[in-house]
Amino acid sequence: xxxxxxxxxxxxxxxxxxxxxxxxxxxxxxxxxxxxxxxxxxxxxxxxxxxxxxxxxxxxxxxxxxxxxxxxxxxxxxxxxxxxxxxxxxxxxxxxxxxxxxxxxxxxxxxxxxxxxxxxxxxxxxxxxxxxxxxxxxxxxxxxxxxxxxxxxxxxxxxxxxxxxxxxxxxxxxxxxxxxxxxxxxxxxxxxxxxxxxxxxxxxxxxxxxxxxxxxxxxxxxxxxxxxxxxxxxxxxxxxxxxxxxxxxxxxxxxxxxxxxxxxxxxxxxxxxxxxxxxxxxxxxxxxxxxxxxxxxxxxxxxxxxxxxxxxxxxxxxxxxxxxxxxxxxxxxxxxxxxxxxxxxxxxxxxxxxxxxxxxxxxxxxxxxxxxxxxxxxxxxx
Length: 382
Fold this sequence. Notes:
- By secondary structure, this protein is α+β, with helices and mostly antiparallel strands.
- It has helices at residues 12-57, 114-122, 131-134, 141-167, 207-217, 276-286, 316-325, 338-341, 357-369; strands at residues 4-5, 8-9, 59-60, 62-72, 76-77, 80-81, 83-86, 96-105, 112-113, 127-130, 172-179, 195-199, 202-203, 222-228, 231-237, 240-241, 247-248, 252-258, 262-265, 297-300, 303-304, 310-311, 330-334, 350-354.
- 35% of the residues lie in helices and 27% in strands.
- The strands form eight sheets. A six-stranded mixed beta sheet has the order 10-4-8-20-23-24.
- 33% of the residues are buried.
């Protein structure tokens, strides 16, 4: 029942105030609930962000290869000539014969994070590979560096030998046994420090000669003569067959050289065997009159054997990008790396396929002459 006075409902003001208070109370509770939900969402978001950052920082078993710096074998490094010759006239050279390098992160060099691996995967100039494809299991950083240093020393000696052979300069070359593993085909017959003299009567001064004789015999015993402490010792060895079908003596071999003059290669903080071909070209240019490059900017990569065969290397894509960034317009690539070359050549770089030092020298001389180089061998997808 409503009692009115002066046309106004007497009870309405009180009722209205009550409803107003209720309304205000209702809004206050809702705000506190929203604040609690917002705080919970903020904490959850921050926690998720922290977990995401932590996940991106976790190490992964991958290796990242990135383009490294280039070094001109005709120039200087830390104020010293990269290649210097004593005991024979040498000739200062112009132009560039750049060796290329790769930065390697991961493995024994330190862990790679999820973020670093993913970022590298998105970068066309970098490569991401499972760790076991690049480094043997359990290898330490010190072991890796030592192996790299030994490979560099070997590549330099092979570069001198191949350069002198390319120029027709005589030198002495021998093959010495560096080790005989237990259970190998030569165990008990050959010894460490023996020097190979012949295999089936053929002078054994190069690994290719030994391999050719073993292959020709198809597993039959071969007559091996070694120089042991100044005396020739002959023995018959039945080669072992590898899983790949090759026949081997089962010994570790190393080359021993005696050159008619001294060649010193000075290059700090660079290891591995992949600079061999470019060292050899640099030596050829240094000991011959004129400029092999004609002032052109040429780069390349590849291992080298004493007889001049150019072998494959790792990180070819990164090395091509590094070469182009360094200013090279012509790049010499091992034929055995062609599969990794196709589709990864940076703009402005011509890549020439080479099998040996003679191929590389021919390509450089053609470029130096200013002639059309489009007819030089290239890598194809076939």
